Structures are given as structure tokens and as C-alpha cells.
Amino acid sequence: MKSEDTPFVGGPLDGRVLPVLLGLTGHPPKTYRVPVPDADGGPATVLVYRRVQSGRSRTLGLHQGWKYEYDPEGDTGRGLKWPWSKGAARGGATPESHADE
């Protein structure tokens, strides 16, 4: 598998460049999760980094690579990716509520 040296910005990994495995499209994953074990033996803390564009070239505006920025909120982003999943959390419609119509 291919990997790419990717810089990390912010958080505990600030300034580090780590090799990240590339997916089938040749891009690193959109989120990078780093589990940090608790010193007291409790549950591990998960640091979340989000992939962003590193920059663009001046002349043609071409993509120049990726970097990861620290997400202090730590949202894992593992929920359902259905249109009704966000509305259900706010009291909106769910697929089951429309079954009776």
C-alpha cells in the first residue's frame, strides 16, 4: 500500500509529519483518529484530525497536497449518513414516521 508523509497542525501532534496510508483514490482519509491511552488505566482519549487542503499553486491554482488540522471538538463523525438522521436528533422526521402516510 502507498503512504504519503502528511503534516499535522494543532493539538498534541503539531509540527509532526507522519506517513499516512492512502486510499484507493490516492487520498488520505478525511479524518485521522489517534487513540491516547489513559495513564490510570481508564478509557482511551481519541484525538481527531480533519484533512484539509495544504495549498494551491500560484500560477494554475492546482492542488498541492493535504494536511491534517486538529479538531478540538473531537466529533468522531461515525453517525448515519442518511438525510433523516440529522433531523431525527432534533425531533424531525424519521423514515418510520412517514410509513403511515
What would the keywords be for this entry?
single chain; 101 residues; mainly beta; five-stranded mixed β-sheet; 1 helix; 7% helix; 33% strand; disordered C terminus
Biggest sheet descriptor: 5 strands, mixed
Broad shape: elongated
Q: Determine the mean pLDDT.
A: 79
Number of domains: 1
Order of helices and strands: EEEEEH
What distance separates the N and C termini? 50 Å
Poorly predicted regions are: 85-101
Number of helices: 1
Measured as a percent range, the helix fraction is under 10%
Oligomer designation = single chain
**Main β-sheet, spatial strand arrangement:** 2-1-5-4-3
Strand content: 25-35%
Number of strands: 5
Over all CA atoms, what is the radius of gyration?
19 Å
What structural class should be given to the helix and strand makeup? mainly beta
Summarize the structure.
The chain has 1 helix and 5 strands, in the order E-E-E-E-E-H. The longest helix has 7 residues, at 83-89.
